[in-house]
Design goal:
Strand content: 35-45%
Helix content: 10-25%
Number of helices: 2
Largest sheet: 10 strands, antiparallel
Low-confidence stretches: 31-37
Order of helices and strands: HHEEEEEEEEEE
Length: 183
């Protein structure tokens, strides 16, 4: 037994078919027409300058924001913090806001401190995304630290710190050449 559709149902059915067809055409156009370019010539120039800076092995990062795991974003402007690269060594101090699970104790530093070789150093340039990824490890006493830094072509930076004794924390800041020493 075959049932016949009423005129209203026929209109709804044809409207749905047209809607699905229109959505399909739009998705095909978007998929075919979207190609990622590497950016403008200014972006490329900024990326080349950043690459040259990192390859020089002497640069520093100063952070404006701390992003703790369990707290709101904290403004660091006016608070001392730095990550300084010199060759294959790094010196850093990053204020820490978060939960410490073990280690430390009274009289210990209030931040993440490290000075020494950038162990397991990994640097990768990504021209398509106009950024440079830097990974390295270090130790602060018994604490094992892993750092993941992304440098963006406009001079911004994002740093994530994973610790064997503390909650993870991230920082947002800026990268620049090391200031010239005053004589």
């Amino acid at each position: 037994m075959q049932t016949e559709l009423t005129p209203t149902l026929k209109k709804v059915k044809s409207g749905l078919q047209l809607g699905f067809l229109a959505i399909g055409i739009i998705l095909m156009i978007m998929a075919c027409g979207s190609t990622k370019s590497t950016g403008t010539s200014k972006d490329l120039q900024n990326f080349e300058q950043l690459s040259k800076l990192v390859n020089s092995g002497e640069f520093e990062i100063e952070n404006d924001w701390a992003v703790p795991l369990r707290s709101p974003t904290i403004n660091l402007i006016g608070n001392s913090n730095f990550i300084r690269f010199k060759g294959d060594s790094v010196a850093l101090f990053l204020p820490y806001f978060g939960v410490r699970h073990s280690g430390g104790g009274y009289g210990t530093a209030g931040g993440i401190e490290y000075e020494g070789p950038a162990k397991e150093l990994y640097i990768a340039e990504n021209m398509a995304k106009n950024n440079i990824l830097i990974k390295f490890e270090g130790r602060q006493g018994s604490e094992h630290l892993q750092f993941i830094i992304t440098l963006f072509s406009k001079g911004n930076s994002s740093t994530s710190v994973n610790s064997s004794e503390r909650d993870p924390i991230s920082y947002w800041g800026n990268v620049r050449a090391m200031p010239a020493k005053k004589q």
